Model the fold of this input.
Amino acid sequence: MKAVTVLLLLCTLIAGSAVAQAWQEINVEGFTLRWATVSGTELSVELTGPTTGWVAVGFDPTMMMQNANIIIGYVASGIPEIRDDFGVGTTSHAADTTLGGTHDLTIDGGSEAGGATEIQFTIPLNSGDMYDRALAPGGTYSVILARGANGMDNFGSPHAFVTSSEITIFQLSLEQETWASIKTGE
Done:
């Protein structure tokens, strides 16, 4: 029976139906950024920052905020509000949709507790939108992490703190996906 289950699991993985994730994490200046590739085409992200206002992550900026794919969000009355922005200047950003682009993210959740805000979302690794930076498995990218002041539940208030780091987008091999799926039973 186990051999049949493993064989079916392998067939499912080869067909692309199963999803395995290997979460990676960085902790920088009170922020926690977790990410994992999903089916080799999407990036699942969890960002927590020390504020009751907004938090944001900017992927692959060229200088400060310039050209970054910025995901900014807050939680108001228990409901996460998350927007897909683009760094239009070194210190400014705008919603992709106001620039003629598209809103390329899925809101997966969010919460506010203990003086921290967490947003959860999924973005395509390459949306095709000129206002999103393409990310590739195996690539290393600069990220900027920012937060608004406590209570700033909006997309326009200035940041209270910003820092930066680097992440590498990791993609599991088929063998690793198979082992992870067998081990977790997924």
User: Anything to note?
Assistant: The CA atoms of residues 60 and 142 lie 5 Å apart. The longest helix spans residues 2-15.
